Amino acid sequence: MTASTYGLSSQARNLQWLLTDLVEEVPGLLSVAVVSSDGLLLLSSDPGQTGARQEGREGPKGASADLATIVSGLGSLTVGAAKLMDAGGVKQTMVAMENGSVFVMSISDGSLLGVHATPDCDMSVVAYHMALFVGRAGHVLTPELRSELRKSMESAQ
User: What is the DSSP string of the chain?
Assistant: First the structure.
């Protein structure tokens, strides 16, 4: 799961553990990504899939790097829509497709949690476990921890 935990702070290891727990506890999850407010991948359920897919090194469709891009775009789009509608902050977004679903949930610091799931997943279970993750992770995602997570993801490439 994600980059090596060697040399990481206890808070970073705890967030990685929370992500691992999310993936292992919820049936139907294909990929999970935590994305910073500026669109950078902080945590990933796909080890070694931190960079964009390159010719000759194709990762699976829906891998965390792809998911991070989608999550960042959906986050930006929904925030813009909420502003236009004068509807306040966006708490969550769900896109149901023929062959899967994408869930996006805001974390208190502006970061986003994104999940790509199978079409037969239990959406209420996915949303519940995402909310648990957000509640546990939101208060520890400090600027210092985000910087540490970015560096660990870069070194895993």
Answer: --S--TT--HHHHHHHHHHHHHHHHSTTEEEEEEE-TTS-EEEESSTT--SPPBTTBPPPTT-HHHHHHHHHHHHHHHHHHHHHTT-----EEEEEETTEEEEEEE-TTS-EEEEEE-TTS-HHHHHHHHHHHHHHHTTT--HHHHHHHHHHHHHT-
